[in-house]
């Protein structure tokens, strides 16, 4: 399942089995290669064979500069060009991403 989910985000690389001892609830730590030209995903909807749906939310470790408005890596929200567009309205365009996207590293996990 970890490999399937990782491949939905990008290219699955590794499931950190050591992190399982430190995870909370059903959280798992996986390593995924991401295409930084594409926006990050915050959730993935999965449907079982019986039709039940589940949402899986993601946080990212070692997240570099990231724009919470346009979901792109490489610059911060303060410098986002989409905020300069005439159609942009901060009050009407709520953030779908925020600092919760950055995972906190648990003590004892390997880097």
TrEMBL record:
It holds the Pfam family zf-CCHC_4. InterPro entries: Zn_knuckle_CX2CX4HX4C. It comes from the Eukaryota. Residues 34-81 form the Zinc knuckle CX2CX4HX4C domain. This is Zinc knuckle CX2CX4HX4C domain-containing protein. It comes from Sesamum alatum.
